[in-house]
């Protein structure tokens, strides 16, 4: 665990959190489930205040807040002419571009719900997302139209689809629609608890689930980081992650557009051009996920890392080792790490840039922030209950599942769930600390130190047993990712016939620095024998989600089988202290219940 704070430092931190969280609460407190304030109301207010300011910098073109509003209004009038009304849902399947925001802003003016579809999906997963949203139509772009058509054809699905730049959605056709705002009466009956967006879980562990994002919840996410980041209308926020994702699409967009700041938008992340673009654009902030920062730190140091104007970064998933290296190499010290899931009600903020912590709840205000960590069985995820039938809160330093109390009268603590009611109920833990209470289950193992800092440990269900020992995939991933030749990894257990438990396997994206023998020495030195990966699968970028995570479900399904386009599979060779290619003879040995030994003489 982390070193305890001194009395003075703890007092300083307490004050920072008490006043900082009070500011966040005052800002987000206006967005209530029963209130009339909706997402388009707040964005229109920003347009009225900052109309001439730059809203987007995208591919060599600047567009203002006024331009954004005009574009959104035309989308709204087009949708109204199609007959779409409040209560309808339209799926948006686009790559990163300002029109993603323009579309959902415009459709929200009518009260229409927008389903933000992952632009990296195809086939069954893509159609599943459209179907689960009960969408009336799909809006896409030239770059993705073929992917959409092929998916609908393969799954025998039929939806009206419209392509930006073509037909009804060509610029000339849109210009025929009014640039004025639709009458607010079209959405006047809606309240904060009504659904504004559907945002999907990443799908790294199964088919994506559609999280129902109410107007009040969206506005909470869009505004919560305004105070902690100290954003001003003069800031330029570099955003390179997908706009269908909550971190960028709500938190990043909201920090900017509710404050008069500019969004410097890129279609996709590029580690090679990142710092050059940050410097050239004059960006003062950027949005991250931990994997992005890891990619940046895996590249050789560059002079540009110190020539930027970045004063603050914000995001989630930044591990301590990468955090400290990033600060040392770039000089960036104001890092606002936050924790929260798209669908969940748990929100944690790290307001004092404590490396590795996802947030803090000072003991002084613990009763006002109902986030707790309860004891669970690590493998099954079952909550451990006492003789009274209630759950037990863990001790400091003890891992457990993070949960958040569900309060329906407060947007910050509501849980609106998924489109799938059964999936929603699985995320609720009942009769926790008293009969009748209900808490949202994060599915994340965390531990909390005596000063109130929370630290992520692992995802529930990602722990497996091998050689009679529990293996934490998160801990193994940290070691694997620390190797210079690995950009990102996903660790999981795979069954080997005749062997108890699951053998460790890692799917890895590698760079030119990867050497199997060096990697073997690395994991041999850093991990106990039972935790070292037995198998490796070298995967290409198509295995990555939009937030630079490997799709673990696909990797698990392939296991160690040699499949076409699945990447090379390596197996540990303890005799030669390296990883070598897995052969068809090895596969037969595995099916017979034997782990592969040293490479054959003729290999």
UniProtKB/TrEMBL annotation:
Residue ranges occupied by any AMP-binding enzyme C-terminal domain in the UniProt entry: 475-546
Domain AMP-dependent synthetase/ligase: 43-365
InterPro entries: AMP-bd_C (IPR025110), AMP-bd_C_sf (IPR045851), AMP-binding_CS (IPR020845), AMP-dep_synth/lig_dom (IPR000873), ANL_N_sf (IPR042099)
SUPFAM superfamilies assigned to the protein according to its UniProt record, in alphabetical order: Acetyl-CoA synthetase-like
Extent of Basic and acidic residues compositional bias: 582-594
Region (Disordered): 581-603
EC number: 6.2.1.3
GO MF: long-chain fatty acid-CoA ligase activity
Listed Pfam families: AMP-binding, AMP-binding_C
Keyword ATP-binding included in the entry's annotation: yes
Transmembrane regions listed in the UniProt entry: none
Keywords: ATP-binding, Ligase, Nucleotide-binding
NCBIfam families documented for this protein: PRK08279.1
Similarity comment: family membership: Belongs to the ATP-dependent AMP-binding enzyme family.
Name the record gives this protein: Long-chain-acyl-CoA synthetase
